[in-house]
Fold this sequence. Notes:
single chain; alpha/beta; ABC transporter transmembrane region fold; six-stranded mixed beta sheet; elongated; binds adenosine-5'-triphosphate
Amino acid sequence: MPPGGGPRGSQFMTDEEKQQAPRVTKALLMRVFSYLKPYWKQLLLVLVCLVASSAFSILPSVLTGKIIDEGLIGRSLSKLIYFILLSLGVTLASNLIGVGQNYINTWIAQHITFDMRNNMFRHLQKMSQHFFTTNNQGDIITRMTSDIDGVERVVTGTFASILSNSITLVIAVIAMFQKNWLLALIGIAVTPLFVIPTRRAGKTRWMLTREAQECNDEINGILNETLSVSGQLLVKLFGKEEQEYTRYENVNRRMIKLHIRESMAGRWFFVVLSTVTSIGPMLLYLVGGILMMKYNSSLTVGDITVLVALLGRLYGPVNSLLNVQVDWIRSMALFTRIFDYLDLPVEIENAPNALVLTRATGQVTFKDVSFSYDKERPILQHVSFELKSGHSIAIVGPSGSGKSTIINLIPRLYDVDAGAVLFDGIDVRRLDLNFLRSHIGVVSQETYLFNGSIRDNLLYAKPDATEAEMIDACKRANIYDFIAAQETGLDTMVGNRGLKLSGGEKQRISIARVLLKDPALLIFDEATSALDSISESKIQEAIDPLIQERTSILIAHRLSTILAADEILVVQNGQIVERGQHSDLVKAGGVYTELYNTQFGKGAVTE
Length: 607
Ligand code: ATP
């Protein structure tokens, strides 16, 4: 079978791979082996199986000699039958051991990847928002899925192949030398001949496979762009169906051509390979024959047949071992990529002896807080304010001024660079994260609903909520009428990310979700995008009583929300530039007055 079937199986590395080839240090190896260590008993068993199955797989070649010399040429039917049965039995035993070894191998690989996947998931969940906003989502998912799947292939493939090929090779070489050292030497000397065409064909196939992969990426890109909800909308509205079809058809055509060429490259290679591989045996027959006929050697016909058979058994392992360096480096690169992620420091975690308070009132204090996302461009500078328990604050300011950043610091999505954020009088960094977050409810602009029913989404906040509690929360969030009008009520599916619902409905469901959570502090990031006035007033009706009854911070864009708050903070360029009551701020003629005149004053619901 021609080796080098694909990028993973090829003996060639891309330039990128060469550059990124990891330094295989002792520490790296120790770490890789630390994952194998818990399974050392099973590994030992695999080793025993490998030795046994390799030895057994070589035996039939040796027995062929006996079949010929003692059975056929010796004209002994009983010996012939005996060796034939023995040979069959040994083959069967070797295959059975192979099955067992494969099972244990897969079992180990699966358990190692199980451990790794869980480790990685737990670790990634501890990563801060900074990690998720900075890293590409696709990259994170690739490491969780294909990289870790790759580890499974390394254990069942690379590691097992190094072991089994080395063992087979050693046993076959020993057996050949035992038969006849001269013929053994000749056989081994011609072996490299077959490596040359293997590498050439491998290279061609590798290039074709890469091209096919690029083509495949392009096809996936087209499918993603054109068959997604928003993509289809764009295609339809701009009447681009034909153009997209042609684009798709062209790439598709390129793909089939590549596949055909790839398959043919394999065929030609096979022709060359089988011709070259037959040179070795022919040489053995020739030299063996000369030795027998001209030099009266004790060699028998059976011996020569055994040597030829053993030589045939060398090709596979030699080829695999010659390529193993690439596989090995790839495997190490895979482990390095995984370890890179596992080694990322946890930026936000519980302090030792983190505090859990008996109750929370939701009081928030910012003490001279400065913050920057990238530690270069300052986003918040010297922000100080106090939100007393039961009170509410409205934060207003131009887009990008730092309003959302202020609220992100309260549940410790990020940590301050200077100053402190206090929750109930205690620095949030000293509080237990679970405690802190369980007492903060956030209704954000970008409402995230899971793909499930409305009920599933509500229960996420409070898994033991009763039907009555859920209905009550929905009523208070002004969404119950909508739910009751649905055929399946609370069991209505919300669709992918809640796409089956309108923006206003989604936001009201997320208000109901927060109500079920019943937090001490409510943070409401009012939507800037235009909701129609009915949706807006429904949200307003839902949110107004909530603000009255609990400690809340509102990022407000509309006058009615602003007026409902006890204090207004005006943020500009990451600083609080004005604060106070609406009437005073309007009179002051500063940033607030400007915002009032240009933004929320116009859309005033009440004044
Ligand atoms: P809007 O009213 O438009 O929502 P905002 O006042 O809430 O704006 P923030 O979201 O706090 O503004 O953003 C403040 C600044 O920080 C912006 O300049 C933004 O580009 C930057 N910023 C926000 N999030 C990040 C992030 N995760 N990484 C880096 N910079 C960020």
